[in-house]
Description:
Blueprint: H1 2-34, E1 48-53, E2 56-61, E3 65-66, E4 71-80, E5 83-89, H2 96-109, E6 115-123, E7 129-131, E8 136-141, E9 150-156, E10 163-184, E11 189-209, E12 215-222, E13 228-238, E14 244-252, E15 257-258, E16 263-269, E17 274-283, E18 291-301, E19 307-309, E20 313-318, H3 322-355
Parallel strand pairs: 3-11
Antiparallel strand pairs: 1-5, 2-4, 4-9, 6-8, 6-10, 7-9, 10-11, 12-13, 13-17, 14-16, 14-18, 15-17, 18-19, 18-20
Amino acid sequence: MFGEAFNGAMKRLIVLVLITLLLMLPQVLAQEERSVPPNIWKFNDDYFTVYGGPEMVVSIAGSSEYDRDDSATILIQIMNQGKVVGFESEDEPDDANEIALSKMEREMEYGVTTAVGVMASLSAEGSPLDIKTPPQSAGTLLSGQVSEPLQFEIKIWDSAAAGRYQLLVNLTYQFQKDVQVDGNATSNKVDYIMLYQEVTESHDVSIIVRKQADFKVVEVDSDLLPESSGILSITFRNTGEETASGATARLRLRDPLSSTDYTAFMGDMLPGDDVRTRFNIDVDSDATAKTYSIKAEIEYEDSEGKTMVSDTIYVPAQVREPEEKAGILENLFLMGGGVLVLAALVYIYMKRREQQ
C-alpha cells in the first residue's frame, strides 16, 4: 500500500512540474526574444514591397565643343527620372491600427524614387584632356528634379586631334529600398524604420575637339650680325586639320633685334602645307652673339570666315660673331691672292718658253 501511494505521489509531482514548466515556457521565450537586438534589415510587419527606384540621366549643359589646348569649364547636369513600377502586398492588416499604419507605409514607399546624397566625379577615360576638379555634390534629387550644373575644370591637351571623345560621369547615391511603420496610429506614436541601398553607376557624355589650323616652325635660316641688317628665313607648316585662309605671319621683336618689315603674307595654307617667309632684321651694335628666341604668331580666317590668331610660336634666331664673317672674307682674299700668284708663275713660265 505504501509503495503504491508513493508511486502515485511521484507521478502527480512529475505532472505538476511539467505543467509548471509549460506555463513558464512563453515567459522564458519572451525573455530570450527581448535579449536579441532588433534587426532593421528584416521587417516583421512589412505591408508592402515596392518595385522601382531612381533613374539618373546625365548630360552636358551648354556647349560641348572645345579647341585643343583650351582650359575650360564643363557643366554637368543630373536629372532623376525615377519611377515606381509596382506594389506587392505582403502582410494584411488585422485591425484599424494596422490599416492606418499600412496606409502610412504605402505613402512612404513612394520615397523609393528619391536619390539621396548624389556625388558626381568626372574621368577622362583615355581622352586627351586632364580633369582638374574633384568630385562634386548634387545633393538629394527627387523624381523629376534636375541638379544645378556641376562645374568641372578641364584642360584639353595641345596635342589632341580633332574628333569626338567620351568622358565618364561616375555617380554614387543611396535610395530608400524599403520602409516599415510600427506603433499606435491613434495616439500618433509611430516609429519609422527605413532600409537604404547604396548605388554606384557610370554615365557616358561626349565632347568635341574642333578642327582647326595649327602651326609649327620646321626650318630657320638666319644671316644676322651685330650692327647690320640681315635676312631671317622661317618655314611654317600647317599641322592642323583645317585650311588657314589668307594666313599672315607676324613677328614680335625686342632689343637687340628690330625690323620695319615684321609681317609676311603666306596665303591659303592647307593641312600639311609648308610656306617659307623672309624678314629683314636689324641687329643693334651691342648685340651679343647667341641664339635669340623670337615670338611669332599667324593670323588667318577659319572655315567659317572668323579671324583667328594662333598660339605664340617661338623661333630661334642666331646672331653670329663679326669675326666669323671677317674670317670668311679674309679667306676669300687669301684664296684670290693665291690665284693671282699662280697666274703670274704660269705667265713667267710661258714667256721663258717663247724666248727659247
